[in-house]
Design a protein that fits this description.
Belongs to the serine/threonine dehydratase family. Its cofactor is Mg(2+); pyridoxal 5'-phosphate; Ca(2+); Mn(2+). Pfam families: PALP. This protein has 338 residues and is of the alpha/beta class. It has two domains: 226 residues, Rossmann fold (3-Layer(aba) Sandwich); 95 residues, 3-Layer(aba) Sandwich (Rossmann fold). The protein has 14 helices and ten strands. The strands form two sheets. A six-stranded mixed beta sheet has the order 1-2-10-7-8-9, with helices on both faces. Strands 5-4-3-6 form a four-stranded parallel beta sheet, sandwiched between helices. The radius of gyration is 19 Å and the shape is globular.
Length: 338
């Protein structure tokens, strides 16, 4: 993607064509129980429906594969000599696995810088996809410095976890699917609730959804203990994430220079939820929908289920919720915290 090429419906559609046959078209599910907890429209008393886009069923167990595969495959298509030198990224989890698998499928090397504190199971997963894991001390500066060292030594191309136009466009493909699937189910979406960390998925979904339906209402969902997006949105000035703390460990990252303006100008609101409500939502989804989602994925559901101010809004008859992933440490289930 050239510097002049903006993230748009065209780039998202191109990403959808690129990932077709490689990424899963994930299911959209409904739940009578969860929809009933969301309640009825406060003005018309009409029943309301929650629809869930299950990226926990995506390859590597998270939406991250969409953006990673789009970025890696485009690099291979347009600059094969450069791509042959490999790709490098830094990640403590899902993005690293996604990049490793995308590189494997495209037949090029991958180097994933991971903090020494990352769970061994995640390091093993990245290695299992054929990537080289390069460990560093667990600080952002160390990640960036180590990635720069690998780039200098190998000539590999850096792919940012979220602040990259091809990654954002790839993540936006889930919204393309979601809007069409909701129409086919007879529940065209009035609104989307999307979890936000670095903002790659949210900004990609905004780009696709707003281009298809300019009237769709989009809400970001964030843990109260990692509420930099909410602070930024309220002040209309970028506020970095400082010492975030939440069980939703996939949402602890600061917004990016590409993602923040898209979010600032297009979301209706950023809703925050407590740790207790994240845990309650996660458990409810496991118990009533019979699927595994990670706490980060349950954050937007917590908004719909427990945020009384949000539930009081009119016109939210069909609300789409993105389940971002399902990678859970089974030794540390959220409701078994000491």
């Amino acid at each position: 993607m050239t510097v002049k090429e903006e993230i748009s419906l065209r780039t998202v559609t191109a990403a959808a064509e690129r990932i077709q046959g490689h990424a899963h078209k994930t299911a959209v599910l409904t739940s009578t129980t969860l929809s009933s907890l969301f309640g009825r429209d406060p003005s018309t008393n009409a029943p309301r429906t929650l629809l869930f886009k299950c990226e926990n069923f995506q390859r590597v167990g998270a939406f991250k594969f969409r953006g990673a595969f789009n970025a890696v495959s485009r690099l291979c298509q347009e600059t094969p000599e450069l791509a042959a030198k490999g790709i490098v990224t830094h990640s403590s989890g899902n993005h690293g696995q996604a990049v490793a698998l995308a590189a494997k499928l495209n037949g090029i090397p991958a180097y994933v810088v991971m903090p020494s504190s990352a769970p061994q199971v995640k390091k093993d997963a990245v290695k299992g996809y054929g990537a080289t894991v390069v460990e560093c001390v667990p600080t952002l500066q160390a990640r960036e410095d180590t990635a720069a060292k690998v780039i200098n030594e190998t000539g590999a191309t850096f792919i940012h976890p979220y602040n990259h136009p091809d990654v954002i466009s790839g993540q936006g493909t889930l919204a393309l699917e979601f809007l069409k699937q909701a129409e086919e189910l007879g529940h065209p979406l009035d609104a989307l609730i999307v979890p936000v960390g670095g903002g790659g998925m949210l900004s990609g979904c905004i780009t696709a959804a707003k281009a298809i339906n300019p009237n769709i209402r989009i809400f970001a969902a964030e843990p109260l203990g990692a509420n930099d997006c909410a602070q930024s949105f309220q002040s209309k000035t970028f506020v970095p994430s400082v010492a975030p703390k939440s069980i939703a460990d996939g949402l602890l990252t600061s917004l990016g220079s590409l993602t923040w303006p898209i979010i600032r100008d297009n979301v209706e609101d950023v809703r925050t939820v407590t740790e207790d409500n994240i845990i309650k939502a996660t458990r409810l989804i496991w118990e009533r929908m019979k699927i595994i989602v990670e706490p980060s994925a349950a954050v937007p559901a917590a908004v719909a289920l427990f945020d009384e101010e949000f539930k009081s809004l009119d016109g939210l008859n069909n609300v789409g919720i993105v389940f971002s992933g399902g990678n859970v440490d089974m030794e540390k289930l959220p409701w078994l915290r000491s």
